Amino acid sequence: MQVSDLRGILQYVPRFREKTFVIALDGEVLASENFPNILLDIAVLRSLNIKIVIVHGAARQIAMASQEKNIPVSNTDGTGITDDATLLLATSVAIGLTNDIMLGLTNVDLRAAYANAIIAHPAGILGGIDNRNTGRVERVDDRCLELFLNEGIVPVIPPLGFDGEGRIFRVNSDGIALEVAEALHAAKIIFISAHGGVEVGGRFQTQLSVPETEDLLKKHRPSLPPGIASKLDHAARACRLGIPRVHLINGNINEALLAEVFSNDGVGTMVFSNDYQQIRRIYKKDVRGIMNLIRESVDNEGLIHRTRADIVAHIEDYWVLEIDRRLVGCVALHPYPEASTAELACLYVAKGAENLGHGRKLMAFLENLARERGFAEIFALSTQAFNYLQQKGGFIEATTESLPPVRRAKYEASGRNSKILVKKLTR
After folding, report:
1. Is the pLDDT reported for residue 265 higher than 70?
2. Is the pTM of this model over 0.70?
3. Non-local CB neighbours of 128 within 8 Å, separated by 6+ positions
4. Domains in the chain and their CATH numbers?
């Protein structure tokens, strides 16, 4: 690990200190060779005063126990019918896994406790079918969990629930993770499975908004790997219930948990609520950050040089794309009302955040802003990004006659010989 890596981690520490993360571990991950490394990563999170609750599944182990003991099971993941024999087997397997996890946490110097914090009731009759011993969460004993957390103890929750009469139910672990996170006002849910993130059409999805997640499920649910649709469903619901971010990562990749938490782009798929990613006006405190952001492009003559005074003088023209409180892109809209046009300028996306659609998002935002302000068209000047503006933004090449007189004079005086691109704005 390099010093720069440590510095990168440290910027997240104040933000996450004393926050609660719910980590949901699939049964497949518990059987992975990488599981001891996941426990070490959890120990790192705890060392930074991040509160951890572990919820685990057991589907893989229930299926294996069914084969070994020749006991047919009615379902393994807690989403269908759970007959008596399945419940008995699932209970034995789940409690055994809970003990294994607590032993593993002890081996990395963490205190852990089995938390009987899930109050459940029968899932009932669904589609005319009695689900018998399958349950769903009625409420979470958050006071019990907070007592553990405030004492530095990691609660471990199996995929089981109990009612007031002492009956036990098999409950899906994804659903438990959601309910626990909501009850504790968690900052994150982190689903760790054998599949990790989401790939659609050969492209890995690093970030998904709630609407994008719901649309993806409508269009691609049948083609998703086993269990991923459930996690995306619960991720979208969690965000709508106030959980800022939900992550899906591959538990077979070493250090994936730390890489996902302590880097801007991560290694998995993150479903986020609207406050994670935003385009906003800049403040004076952002000016230095913008100058640092665009410095390389200025040095390469992709963007014109702007002084601090230049930006401050037109501060209301500038907007930034902020991801997780980090500036990753900027753009400006300079108005020329006398010509009913405006200039799209200073469009830039940081290295490492490219090819994720951020540039198009900034362009689309500015186009809508220009429409709202009554402009009939926008124009852009570019020495190096003209292909991008034409192909992704729908701009067409024009002549100096398309420029407002004031801007034309500046253009001719600059000597940059930029290509002039124009786009009509439809209402």
Report:
1. no
2. yes
3. none
4. 3-275 (3.40.1160.10), 278-424 (3.40.630.30)
